[in-house]
Amino acid sequence: MRFSVIERDPECYIPSDIRSNLEGIWDAVVEKEANEFAPMSEIRENDNEYIVKLQLPGIEKEDINIEVEDKILTISAELKHEELQDNERMHYSNIKYGKFNKSFEFINDIDTENSKCEFKNGILRITLKKMDEKKNIKKLTIE
Cα separation of 110 and 128, whole Å? Predict the structure, then answer.
């Protein structure tokens, strides 16, 4: 038995106008994701606390917003683009600018009164104390 193999061009199955539209959409999605500012993060846990670290180089301490609601930590900030001076021209930049909003949900409730934040050398370190579960336990008596 003999088989003949015919090589086919996959582009012949999709009309060129649809193909170019799909390529344009794909390029826009990839370009958008490549230019979004998304800081690197790390979360550690021990018996008493969660430790969250984010790399935020170039961001001022005053431009960082940290909120804890129930078991959710939300961090937002903006890396602002420097304005060019009159005699300057941009030749190249792969620095990602813009706003970001990052949320983390934890299993334990957070004790916000005993939690703390530090920002040093472009690293944000948030130490979130776990809520002592024993505080929520109430003993009931039988009447």
Answer: 6
pLDDT over threshold 70, residue 68: yes
pLDDT for the residue numbered 143: 58
DSSP code of residue 18:
H
Average pLDDT value for residue range 78-90: 84
Whole-model pTM over 0.70? no
Please report which residue ranges of the chain form alpha helices under DSSP H.
16-35
Alpha carbon distance 121, 61 (integer Å): 11
| CATH number, domain 39-82+97-133, options 2.60.40.790, 3.90.1010.20, 1.10.10.350, 3.40.1440.10 | 2.60.40.790
Asked if residues 68 and 35 have their Cβ atoms less than 8 Å apart, the reply is no
